[in-house]
Amino acid sequence: MQIDKVCLSELSDALKIYHSCVCQHKSSGFKQWDEHYPSREIVERDILKGYLFGAYSESRLVALIAITNDEPKEYEKVNWKEKSSFLIIHRLCVHEFFLRKGVANALMSFAEEYAKNQNYLSIRLDTFSLNEGAVFFYKKIGYSKVGYVNFPKREDSDYTCFEKKV
Fold it and tell me: DSSP readout, 11-28?
């Protein structure tokens, strides 16, 4: 499994992977992602800013993760342990054909090494609270629950915030 920055020429492939996740979420009854989120504009911006990384299997893009320092304003109310020097994970997504094959784990390990190499002290993220699989996953790989946030237009549940010192 190779992990690298996603290129603008791969935008269409990235959107297909996100669409796969939207379908997975809908089949599970989740409304966290839909036809409006993540949007083409968001994914393109992630690529142009160098935030979007992909996992590749045999040169095929199979999963995505955005590693940013763009903190949502909703995070201001969370009691984070590390007050400065952090990165934020957004939009981790694995194509349905590559679920439960260690791809998400590889992406998170990559993000942690990336943060260390850039001299950050922690990683923050949030996940849809009703997505028990995601909540379990982040706990399993050593992330601590630090609070909850709500996002506009996403009123069907809160989001659990996690943090891990790297």
Answer: HHHHHHHHHHHHHHHHHT
pLDDT digits (tens, 9 = 90+) for 36-73: 778 899 999 999 999 999 999 999 999 999 999 999 99
Is there a contact between 55 and 1 (Cβ–Cβ < 8 Å)?
yes
Question: How many other CB atoms sit within 10 Å of the CB of residue 4?
Answer: 11
φ/ψ of 140, rounded to 5, equals -60, -35
Q: In the chain, where are the structural domains located?
A: 2-125
User: Of 24, 111, 23, which Cα lies nearest the Cα of 64?
Assistant: 111
What pLDDT shows up at residue 154? 66
Q: Could you write out the DSSP letters of every residue in 45-91?
A: HHHHHT-EEEEEETTEEEEEEEEE----GGGGGS--S--SSEEEEEE
How far is Cα 39 from Cα 146, in angstroms, rounded to an integer?
A: 28
- Average pLDDT, rounded, for the chain: 92
**CATH fold for domain 2-125:** Aminopeptidase (3.40.630)
The per-residue pLDDT for 16 is 93
- Residues 134 and 137: their CA atoms lie apart, in Å, by 5
Tell the burial category of 72 from Cβ atoms under 10 Å away from its Cβ (0-12, 13-18, 19+). Answer: middle
pLDDT tens string 108-130 = 999 999 999 999 999 999 998 98
